[in-house]
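seq:
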Amino acid sequence: MARTPSSRSPATRTPATGPRTGKVPASGAAAPTSAEPAQPKANPWGPAVQSEGDGRILVGRSFLGRSEAAKAGTSAKDEYLTLRLANRHGLVTGATGTGKTVTLQVLAEGFARAGVPVFAADIKGDLSGVAALGVAKDFLIERAHEVGLTYTPDSFPVIFWDLFGEQGHPIRATVSEMGPLLLARLMGLNDTQEGVLNIVFRLADEQGLPILDLKDLRAMLAEVAQSAATLTAKYGNVSTQSVGAIQRQLLVLENQGADKFFGEPALNIADLMRVDRSGYGTISVLAADKLMGAPRLYACFLLWLLSELFERLPEVGDPDKPKLVFFFDEAHLLFDEAPKALLDKVEQVVRLIRSKGVGVYFVSQNPLDIPESVLAQLGNRVQHALRAFTPRDQKAVKAAAETFRPNPDLDTAQVIMELGKGEALVSMLEGNGVPSMVERTLIRPPSGRIGPLSADERAAVMAGSPVGHIYDAPIDRESAFEMLQKRIEEKAAPQEAAASDGGGFLGGVLDSVLGTGASAGKAPSGTARSGGRASTRMTTTEVVVNQVARTVASGLGRAILRGILGSIRR
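struct:
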């Protein structure tokens, strides 16, 4: 959506606590008040950059030969990412320090400017600067000039998220939503242990026991261990050793902070697909610096999120622009040691989620980090420099060069090793989805700040967030743990009554169920009836009553499970 310079100038920005949320107020700019409204001020850096054109994102400018040719302006060609082809996915790769994060920021800003919401994992914290107005430094102005632009500072609506709830709003998912496949990978279970975990989920589904957090899962595992003999006859071998191994892995997860991730309120996918009042797509930034200390949790969370989008979003075919774009940084963590069943699922989701209007962009150091079956689905590519110091590095350079459509004017494999910082080999889909010839490209400068926000600036953005009141406070409703506790108490209560009132057990049941007062004339407490010992066996009436109660409770549990945790059964 086109914007006039005055509408984006620092003086007219509303502070983060006002209606325009998710942005850092311009430094030194006073917040407008109702008594003294702010006056529009001309942007000192010229008109807003609209070089993307309709339905395109400007990535940079390519030049035949080395980047020094940019100064002479010879054989220049602008490189664009076409929005209607952006849901064909993409890949950004390159060695450390070559400019991948800046390229990610350029693409995220382009999508947001076009009204497309973005979700991105922020490994180093640098991406948080997109919420703040860019600073016109000399090297940014020079790069903008080299690619034919006038540098124009801008800021973008941002929502900060954090699985640990420290640098952003907490993201939570229920254990039931995660499912046994991803959970088994998260805990590093073997096939036998994964089989037991599947039995746990099956039993919970059948008995209407929602598994929302780790204490629910621990309670279900204890229930399975106690009923191992019965369950073995129905589902196959259930060993207490396997249950114990899963319990130990749960303890490891808790030590890594996973107990903060599992629970409610669970993330609503719609909150990742917001557009602000001025038409900019919201950029959801996941603080992942601490999360990198638990790489399996990071990987399983991202795969769960991708799966949730695939299952929840409707089919839209090929829209004019994506409904949502995901950037998965450190993408190799998604696939390291992943079993084939999981890789097959990821490939299927990546292949089919395109029709849901979702674009997936993997960011990694090496194209070999991505399985070939997934790599084949990634049409839009940006390759920063690679260094060939080892045989594996040389193989990576050759593999990266061979994935591009050849350009007769470039030795792709050689150029990959010569690229400077902020340069990349770029090939985007064009026309009917055909990859363009690879071009050596100067990446355009981002409009937002390059570098992280301060703690105070991040806090100001979070204070004005439209979702803070939804997710900041945890919810602990009745679930498997509480339901199983009630079962134990219900089983213990009759036994306690029988112990304190010998022979009065049946009468107490009839009193409570039929309301007849049948036990009014029974023998005193502790006296055996008819000279016999007090019976603890359940009568036919008790069996019927308990069965009815279990049936009603199970039905209610399944209704809650399927209504609130709709992602489980679709």
